[in-house]
Write a structure and sequence with these properties.
By secondary structure, this protein is mainly β. Helices cover 7% and strands 44% of the residues. The protein has one helix and 20 strands. The chain has one helix spanning 96-110; strands at residues 3-4, 9-15, 20-21, 24-25, 31-33, 45-48, 64-76, 82-94, 116-120, 125-128, 134-138, 143-146, 152-156, 161-164, 170-173, 179-182, 187-193, 199-206, 218-220, 226-228. The strands form five sheets. Strands 1, 2, 5, 6, 7 and 8 form a six-stranded antiparallel beta sheet that branches. The chain has a six-stranded mixed beta sheet with strand order 9-11-13-15-17-18, covered by helices on one side. The chain is globular and about 55 Å long. The termini are far apart.
Amino acid sequence: MSNKPTETITSVKGFGLDMKCSDFQFEVGKTYTHDGEVKACSGGFHACEYPLDVFNHYAPGQSKYAIVTQSGNISRDSGDTKIASGKITVEAEIKIPDLVARAVAWVIAKATLANVKHSEGYQSAASSTGDESAASSTGYQSAASSTGDRSAASSTGDQSAASSTGDRSAATSSGKFGRVMAAEGCAMFLVYRGDNWDIEHAWAGIAGRDGIKPLVWYTLNNDGQPVEVV
């Protein structure tokens, strides 16, 4: 664990449904200062740099999440991206679809150039491997696949597909008739677009929870519900 006094970090924090964490009451728009030692897992205000890491501490369906800024004394956990800070500001509450989108953006920003693949055009495909790798593709019947811890796959375009495997990875597909598949514990994000391509439904989930099967293709029906692709 490291301790730095000068960083300012944007991260994601989890709470109970009452916006409490460890019996401390939080409120959106407020700034809080911790009196005492700042040490990851034992002292200070805690949040996660990588958005999906927050699920390790606050499970979906029984939690709320917010974008926060952390400053003052900083202590990092060696196990995941959890950070303890002496000062924290609760900026805005976010929902799971926004959290998943932020996870994909985080991976792409962190990935090295060698681990980033992008393709465009009709029936395009992109694949990447390695920790914190990212693959994105655009175009009709495009596909993106990524493997490795904290990897991300994103695809857009009609009948596009995205798959992602590895711990804390995410797959998102935003095209019409898009589909996603993910390994157990990985995040999935889908949208349903109407005839004029406007987004009518958005859905986010975690493979292996709430009836969503790992390594099975899913798409959204016109009611906004995830269904297996036959």
